[in-house]
Fold this sequence. Notes:
Strand order of the largest sheet: 5-4-6-7
Shape: rod-shaped
Distance between the termini: 138 Å
Radius of gyration: 35 Å
Order of helices and strands: HHEEEEEEEEEH
Number of helices: 3
Oligomer: single chain
Structural class: alpha+beta
Number of domains: 1
Number of strands: 9
Helix content: 25-40%
Amino acid sequence: MRLGKAKQKEGGFTLAEAVMALLVVSLAMAGLMQVNRMIAQGERRGLADRRVEASRRSFVNELRQTLTPLQPLRDAKVSGDAEGLSYPCANGECALRPPNGRLVYLSEGAVHTAWPPAPVSDQPPPRLSAVLWQDGDGKNLATVKFPVEHEADCLFDMISRTCLQPQSSASAS
């Protein structure tokens, strides 16, 4: 009988020990699966952010490449509203629309929802100085600024914010 008792002591794991081992392994596997899921969500979010950024960059580049050759944007070459803008091109009239949000037009310190703005009597038409692309909440997604270019002999008047032509010396006497 001694022989039988010795075998029983060396018999291996009890049922409780086997269940505990399975529980530890299953918790480790659940933790690894959760980490894997979190990594996949982060990658999806990062991919979506990269797509949004690529779309934003593409629209800003297209807007800049479209409007820069049309400078100065003082005359009615460009017209637009919050939904987008239209401009002359080789095919006649072309349009540029933001993928989402709205456009806002800036000129010499004024903000316009449409371009060109309504004319003001006895004032030259304003010059478009920037186009803002905003989301639905009014947050700026991008700004495309246009440099102020004046003639070489321009005398800039800070009050009227216009370029005055210099008077010749013959008319001064």
